[in-house]
Amino acid sequence: MISAIPQLWRLLRTGATFERTGAMREILDAFGVRGIPRFALRALAWPFGVFGRSGDPTLPPVARACQAMGPAYVKFGQILSTRPDVVGDRITTQLRYLQDRLPPFPIEAAREIIAAELGERALLIEELGPPVAAASIAQVHPARWGPSGEKVAVKVLRPNVARQFRRDIGTFYFIARVVQGIVPGTERLKPHDVVAHFEGVVHTELDLRLEAAAASEYRDNARGEARIHVPEIYWEGTGRRMLTMEWVEGLPLDPAAIEAAGLDCREIGARVIRVFLRHALSDGYFHADMHQGNLRVRPEDGALILFDFGIMGRLDPVTRRHYAEILFGFLTRNYRRVAEVHFEAGYVPPDRDVEEFAQALRAIGEPIFGQDVSQISMARLLAYLFETTERFGMETRVELILLQRTMVVVEGVARSVDQHSNIWEAARPVVETWIRDNMGPRQIVRDVGQTVDILRRLGPRLPGLAQELVMLAEDARTRRAHPPPPPPPPARPRWPALLAGVMLGVAGFAAGLLLLG
């Protein structure tokens, strides 16, 4: 109870902050909440507004509330900032300030962090300039790389950001426990595991050495790929709280800026989707934070520039195959095969009906095809998908959270560039190529070759493994022929005798008192 009090206070303060900053009113207006529900919500929130944080008054109300509550709230706001079809254009426009236009921290604090991280190597960073972008976890400064004089970008973590995240994560765990305890059916969604997954992602993002390694690996994977650029990492200028990388100029993913440069918005929107899918399927390693603040377009040739590799996703070969088959099934409208893959992967309990699940998937997929995508409400589709997963007992797959979230973000980014962008049509060439290369005769030959190679490497150990299997089989047969004697019956509890002794003692004590009297 004592530990719950601080969490309840933080929840109360969150609502109070949304009221004080005006975000509550903006959200109610955006979702058309009127009449008694609106009056009740405002009446509950208004008395506590004085306890809310004020935030930065230069930000719009919703962005101001998220910024005031801390970096974890900013992260959630960044995700929603890519989904105007879910939260509406009004809220989305405000939340986009969270991508790279948050209030910066002083440059003196950045210099102190650089000196503490690099020591004598801090002399390599020259002419550190004012920040050009500030986000929830870090901000970016221009500088010169001492040995060559080249312009570089220096990313520095915000002071005390790790402590703030730990505080917010504790609140999220509390919410997960409360929801799982009082809302029936939420166990299958595994809210505690989802928060734990988010916590792991954040801890990785708070060590910029890991981000540098991720950028380096992604750059190697993208080497030779047309129209994609990943900045080079300067390892000598990188530490736990700072990272130095190549400086790259690019256009924001704004339709007006892209068209003014003579580039095709539709082609760039499709490329955002295809870059994500190509790396998720081919490498099993994808950028999992592809919002507008982490993407730029090179004006000369329209190449996509990717930044901020703090959140990355990995898929093992089996998951990649299931994911590709599900996408391919939707693209070919083979809902029966999509349903079968869900059962084969264990996403749906085996006691459910395949045909019924295929019918439910058809109800989700058919509205996507043959319609102008701008007329499709992604909010309604997501609501129906959630309803379907609940009806068929599907549990949350924590290993797929980043993949699903990134798909939502990527589609939102593509539609912000081209409102007619359709993730299914953009995905078709990537998925079809992967299916052809990885599930045809050539892949069968590769699978056989890999099996032979594994057997070759295990060859010297096969006799020993066979001997161990024989011994295990002999031991099991012996146990069946001569089962061990049954365990002795449990000792009878001694408490009745003890209780009787106590009662006799009390009776004797009372009798003694009577005799003495």
From TrEMBL:
Residues covered by the ABC1 atypical kinase-like domain: 98-342
A Pfam family it matches: ABC1
Annotated transmembrane regions: 495-516
Keywords (A to Z) from UniProt: Membrane, Transmembrane, Transmembrane helix
Secretion signal span: none
PANTHER family to which the protein is assigned, alphabetical: CHAPERONE-ACTIVITY OF BC1 COMPLEX CABC1 -RELATED, PROTEIN ACTIVITY OF BC1 COMPLEX KINASE 7, CHLOROPLASTIC
UniProt record similarity statement: Belongs to the protein kinase superfamily. ADCK protein kinase family.
Protein name: 2-polyprenylphenol 6-hydroxylase
Organism: Paralimibaculum aggregatum
Designated gene of the protein: ubiB
